[in-house]
Every structure is written in C-alpha cells, then in structure tokens.
Write a structure and sequence with these properties.
alpha/beta, four-stranded mixed β-sheet, disordered C terminus
Length: 191
Amino acid sequence: KISERLIEFLVEADLINEDALMRAAEISAKVAPGEFIGTLLVREGIVKERDLIDVLCRELRLRRYDPEDFFLDPTMAGVIPPEKAIAWRMVPLGRETDVLLVAMPDPMDVVSIDRAHEYVGSEIEPVICSEAQLKELAGALYGDAEGQNEDSAELKPDFDTDLFSKKQNQQIRFGSANGDSGEEDEGQSGE
C-alpha cells in the first residue's frame, strides 16, 4: 500500500518517532481514495512539508519544483485541460524530449500519472511540488484575472490566479536534478 510505503520512507529518514508513527498509522487507515497521505501528515503536524518533499525526491529519484529551474510554459494549458489537471492534481510544466514534466505534490499517485499518460500519449515525469505551488501554478497556467471566462472560473474555484499572472510570458528553462540550469537543445532556440 502506498501510504505504508511513504511512512516507511519517513521512518527510514528519522523524520517520525514512535508516537508520530502511531498517529501516522491511524491517519493512514482513514485516507480516502484519491487523498494523499502526505498532505494529511503535514496538516496534522507529523512531518514538515519540506521534509516530506525531500524524502520523496530522494527515495523516488525525482526532482523538486523550483521556479528558478522550471518556468511555466503558457502553451502547456492546451496539453492537459484544467478539469483534468484538477482531477489528477498536476500541472504540466513543459517537455523534455518525449517526456511531459508535471508538477504534482503526490508523485505516488500512479492512477493519475497513468491517466495523464493515456491522455497526452507520452511518458509523464512528476516534479514534486508543494500544495501551495500546485495552486499557484494552476492559477498561472489556466487563468489570470483578465483572460478567465465563466466556464473556466467554475473549474478552479480555489486557485489563486493573481500570484503568477506575470509569469505567463516566461519561457521554460529546465534545470538538472542538482539544480544547475540546463542549456537549450540544439534547434529549439527560435533564432
């Protein structure tokens, strides 16, 4: 079970003690389908969100979302529509070769990753982000105050669309796993 695996990661990293382990087990038993146990553990104060993300990145060998390394490409709004992004709790960031990079707080949600893979027809690579970053990215990608229509507003009632509207015009820059900024591939620079 995924929640048990996450708890094992946290125990191995010495991030939860015996009392916290008992509370985590109680919470794990109450996790509803589609709900990420990590979010519940953070909300209950059992683990800090930053520590949770660090453990997931290390154990799953995935990258952490950092706005310095991953700039939101506005064309990605057409790759995964907002209603699917909300349902799958992910926001497309851009592509590296044939792989679609998506920001998501729960990289262990294989059902959503599989659905996104089937929908876009390419491999999906999660980039781990916080819950707040997910909302910020979704607000920036799927709507700003000027460009939002009534239909799309219904789909994202809790996305804060003001925070990142200025980032809509930025290009994608992907960094390596160690945080160094990557170079553009040949032939992709528009010059």
